[in-house]
Amino acid sequence: MRGELMYEGKGKQLYASDRQGELIQLFKDDATAFDGVKHDVIAGKGELNCAISSFFFEKMQEAGIATHYIRREGAVEMRVRELAMMPVEVVVRNVAAGSICKRLGLEEGIPLKWPLTELFYKSDELHDPMIAVEHTELFGWASRDDIEEMRATALKVNEVMTSLLADVGIRLIDYKLEFGKADGKIYLGDEITPDGCRLWDAETGRKLDKDVFRRDLGGLSEVYHEVANRLGIELEFA
Ligand code: 5GP
Asked: What is the position in ligand 1's atom list of the atom closest to the CA of 211?
């Protein structure tokens, strides 16, 4: 049961729930890019993202990763542990794409010798600037130990996701994670969906993620459906 709206982001809403310390995370149909400059509403996107995120979070829990996920509660709703979020995005890259190509002049598609983790300060106004652990420590966003733990978890997530996706012919190029704390412990929060990952078809290199929307490459809903279908994800919430 949903209570008061506590927070609204570009793709999600967080509501109070009937239990202390637990929230209801609702996935919206909105698609945004370039810090909200490009915006569209895509019918069914919320349901796809809720199903895909629930699937990945369940796999993370099975792998022993502490996450905010409790259970899926509806077509577009999941119940989560309430966290104090850290304003730091952890990006993991297996292949060069997106901002690292622009920043370092790399060609898109070059495999990296090992997974690279990068940190960004979560701020739409500032366009999520890249930061170092020195910044997170100095400005009190996350301690050095917190960042070390988040990076280790992000790499464990990489192993689980890379293997699940490789089994269905999808390459995990990169993705973004967010973490938060409850009772002093770090949990993986937010969502794991094609909105925050780059996913390429292993054979053709076709993009199966939000870059389809960012770069006007076709229907977003069709490719998210394809990701869900390949992973064997049940879309209907019973
Ligand atoms: P890049 O730094 O290349 O823009 O993004 C790297 C990866 O993290 C991509 O998979 C991208 O979708 C994801 N990512 C980075 N920042 C954000 C963000 O603010 N929101 C979402 N949804 N994904 C992000």
From this structure: 12
Amino acid at position 116, single letter: L
- Measured from the Cα of 128, ligand 1's closest atom is 19
Tokens (6 digits) for 158: 């990489």
* Amino acid present at 3: G
- What is the atom index within ligand 1 of the atom nearest the CA of 97? 3
Q: Give pLDDT tens digits for 163-203.
A: 999 999 999 999 999 999 999 999 999 999 999 999 999 99
CA angle, 199 as apex, 23 and 150 as ends, to 5°?
A: 50
Per-residue pLDDT tens for 11-39? 999 999 999 999 999 999 999 998 889 99
- Measured CA to CA, the distance from residue 222 to residue 224 in angstroms comes to 6
Ligand 1: residue of 92, 131, 174 to mutate (most ligand atoms within 8 A of CB) is: 174
Do residues 167 and 175 lie in contact, with contact meaning Cβ atoms separated by under 8 Å?
A: no
Q: What SS3 class is residue 52? A: helix
